[in-house]
Amino acid sequence: MRRALALLAVVVCIAGCASPSSPKTDAGAHIDVVMSPNAEGSDFYALDSDGEKIAHAMQMVHSGQIQAAIDGPINEVIAKFEKEYAGKRVYSARGAAEGIMYAALGGTTGAKPGEHIVVIGPSWAMAYWARSYALTEMNRTTEAEADLQRALALSPMDGQYKNELAYLIMRRGKISESLALYKEAEEYAEMTSPYPVEVKCVALRGQGYDLVELHRLDEAEAAYKKCMALVPDEPKSKAELGYIAEQRKKASSK
Question: Where in the sequence is the domain holding 175, given as residue range(s)?
Fold first, then answer.
């Protein structure tokens, strides 16, 4: 489940920086929007130098150089942004619609007079996600979960990060909490991913798994079928529907 979504990170679009605009909120906070123009014909952003480092890091992880990827390009990108935006509230968006939403969110959610709020492209959040992925590969899931929380602090609506966090929380047995995150991931997929079908299908499969664990088989079946409506004959959903059918047979034979 986690693998299917995670592999998208190598090709996901990552923004750079352009001249900022600085509107002021009613609370007196300053909002800077620091994002590059959209890639031609896309609502999402083109790969920048930091994004290229994260893409390279993911290639290193997949080739087995996991710790080297963390110690090298991933931590380099994280350190850069942590230093550059220290003391500021930052949101990290993949595209224009998400960026506009975060700018509005920053101006209405507890903004303080004189507070500096910045909306940037997704490289910083992606770096936390990449480190989380690498840590999970080493079974350091507590640290991985913490990095996903950091990614979501920067990108609170991101469907991919919600899916990933839901998976780790599910592994700890917090099924209801996992289910809620998967539902949010489905809801925000269109806005926050250039690959909304893939993100939605992962979210729906996750919902299906959690609903089976909660013995809510009808709802689980509906979630898997919804995924298959997006991706016909999607094999994991198809297999899980077979499992649900078997459980019903066992229940009826008792």
Answer: 157-254
